[in-house]
Amino acid sequence: MKKRCVEDIHLQKNMSVHDLISSFDKAGGFTAKKIAQGVDILEAMITDKHCIRMLSFPACIISTGVRGVIVDLLKQKLVDVVITTCGTLDHDLARIWKPYLHGSFLADDRVLHQQNLYRLGNIFIPVESYGPVLEQHMQPILMELYKEKKQWSTKDLVWAFGQRLEQVDHGKESITYWAWKHQIPLFIPGPTDGAFGSQLWLFYQNHRDFVIDLLQDEQDLSDTLFSAQKTGALVIGGGISKHHTIWWNQFKDGLDYAVYITTAVEYDGSLSGAQTREAISWGKITEEAENITIEGDATVILPLMIAAVLNRIL
Question: What's the rounded mean pLDDT across residues 170-199?
């Protein structure tokens, strides 16, 4: 390995995010260097014309302003496939119609319960900003879709909802809208695990022939990946969205680019904490892939990395 000297970071007035991240690479420094390497990999993945670019993330970050970073990735057509959780639709749609609030990790949760406030980390979600507002707006849309056809994949269901947001106030601020607008497949492998899914179940009570066809999602996903020359993934967090992303890539001999951002540890054997090197043993990432695992909070790391990438490619 070529020897490199550690260089100091010197901050300057009006320093760009791109220049700051570049200094991370020269400075070394644990996670900072990994962030710089991750930006290099994302740039290579996004600019590789032969690569299907995948994005995986959990719902929690969509309750925060990082939702806007995800929107920008779809708006700029920098990803080709999204795999996420049901809760992403919960937060993405609910925030169109009702606000979420700044909160505190140290709040008294018993008091919050009495005040009809849910706590998601240090985000407060008024009860009326979640289940009730989704029921109010989703049930009429589901009735429209049911009259159109009885069987829906999650990809097609997301697109149908996105199309109906075009004329809605704040609709164009949503992930759902931009997935439809640019026809970017967004798959929800666990569609009943959240408030959006509960509304599907509620509708099903009086419409027993209403079907969510998960196997059609799998077919669409396999058709996309099996025909790809290369694939790459930005994987935020863990859980079902991470596993579904890397699981399907093993059938095309693995990801050619992989960037993980995670706060989970690997010593308990969890999928969420498993680093990229473990996925190589499964064939979910190729042996030759450009890959990195970055430990840290995505609400800090992701905006920095995407800002740097956008500065380079746009």
Answer: 98
Q: What is the share, in percent, of the chain residues with pLDDT greater than 90?
A: 99
Long-range CB contacts for residues 200-205, cutoff 8 Å, separation at least 24: 200/142, 202/135, 202/139, 203/138, 203/139, 203/142, 203/143, 203/146
Would you say 222 and 251 are in contact if contact means Cβ atoms under 8 Å apart? yes
Burial of 277 (0-12, 13-18, 19+ CB in 10 A): exposed
- C-alpha span between 114 and 75 (Å, rounded): 39
Q: Using alpha carbons only, what angle is made at residue 80 by residues 74 and 82, rounded to the nearest 5 degrees? A: 75
Q: What is the edge-to-edge ordering of all strands in the sheet holding 81-84?
A: 186-187, 81-84, 51-57, 230-236, 255-262, 285-295
Cα–Cα distance between 149 and 273 in angstroms, integer? 40
Name the pTM for this structure.
0.97
Encode pLDDT of 114-152 as tens digits.
999 999 999 999 999 999 999 999 999 999 999 999 999
Identify the band that residue 294 occupies on the pLDDT scale cut at 50, 70 and 90.
very high
Tokens of 212: 């969510």
Q: Is 230 a catalytic residue?
A: no
Which helix H or strand E contains 286, and what residues bound it? strand 285-295
Among residues 155, 242, 252, 284, which one is catalytic?
284
With beta carbons less than 8 A apart as the criterion, state whether 8 and 29 touch. Answer: no
The CA distance from 154 to 152, in Å, is: 6
Q: Which residue bears the tokens 């925030």?
A: 95
Strands, E, within 123-206: which ranges? 123-126, 151-152, 186-187
